[in-house]
Amino acid sequence: xxxxxxxxxxxxxxxxxxxxxxxxxxxxxxxxxxxxxxxxxxxxxxxxxxxxxxxxxxxxxxxxxxxxxxxxxxxxxxxxxxxxxxxxxxxxxxxxxxxxxxxxxxxxxxxxxxxxxxxxxxxxxxxxxxxxxxxxxxxxxxxxxxxxxxxxxxxxxxxxxxxxxxxxxxxxxxxxxxxxxxxxxxxxxxxxxxxxxxxxxxxxxxxxxxxxxxxxxxxxxxxxxxxxxxxxxxxxxxxxxxxxxxxxxxxxxxxxxxxxxxxxxxxxxxxxxxxxxxxxxxxxxxxxxxxxxxxxxxxxxxxxxxxxxxxxxxxxxxxxxxxxxxxxxxxxxxxxxxxxxxxxxxxxxxxxxxxxxxxxxxxxxxxxxxxxxxxxxxxxxxxxxxxxxxxxxxxxxxxxxxxxxxxxxxxxxxxxxxxxxxxxxxxxxxxxxxxxxxxxxxxxxxxxxxxxxxxxxxxxxxxxxxxxxxxxxxxxxxxxxxxx
Length: 484
Prior knowledge:
By secondary structure, the protein is α+β, with helices and mostly antiparallel strands. The chain is 32% helix and 35% strand. One of its GO terms (molecular function) is GTPase activity.
């Protein structure tokens, strides 16, 4: 969204907090402004705070080639406070002065050109876009084309929601009258008539379909080659075998390919998280989908984006989530009572958020819940082997270790491991634990004991360590890092 904004605008106002200084998003914004070759006006905000340090901000920005006028550069810096309103007029004057120096001008005649900043669906108005006009004058009744959609302008309104009759270059304007919802960032062009607009949109859709068909053909060709190679290998494998033997071998292979049991199928499905994304505006959905594209933990749990779109959660979304056993995530959207009841009846989760970071955190938690728990070992006690001997039980000799508990306690019902020179050579349970000649269940710190293992082939050595531990299941966490 920042990149798109930098490409559309003529001047970037870079807002940096005087108390926080240069942050990661500040550096990103500077890079976008440089890529778009757009000049910067620096607004140092929160200067009303006691801990504010505007000079520190200016010095930090030097590392990113943003040199303020105080340091011999050409970037204007204005100290402001959005809370109290201090110096906001000075910021406006600095912006106007820079615009005059750059001689920024636009042609208000000729066909309209502009850019879609945002798009959303309004219940009363239908598809609505907010746009910046870059050339020409937009009027009611104008025929526009943007992406794979076209419009006959029915209504226009300004940033305050007030109806306007025309929009000149540099004006932000809301446009009503679109047949479909354009995407944020699409270029707006005026055409002479509705038939011309339909022809342009149809051609663009045809071009897109042709590109998709090329990609599909490429995938089909790759699959065909795979099948041919597999078929060739199978022919080589059975080529010199008698037909009766060949039939028997194929029967054996089919027999080994058993269908998945219900439990195995459920386990497989638990490692896939199908999701549906619904957002208030196209830009929000784009931002969320772009974050999904950074997902790199498919080896843990596969993240499957079933559907995404603009608008409130609908019955179709619920039906889709039920079919794929997925979760619906909504950003700044509403869910009607009827839809909520339908989702509850079908066992579909609907999670609504108003902050994008919270939505991603919720998604991470959902991914965590799909992962199998990890087992952690928690030590309960440690003992060192001081002597080794064997006792006769029936006709066999059983190795016994004479131990002293150095830390914690040994509990017979827990698990044990034998460590020699730092290496674990055995894990399992005890067959006996004795204090003197008495069978006991617990031996505490400082006490001596004799113990034997469930596995009789293991031999003890003086100096070995015996660790008593318990295993606890700990919820696993996804390794995916969305970057914030």
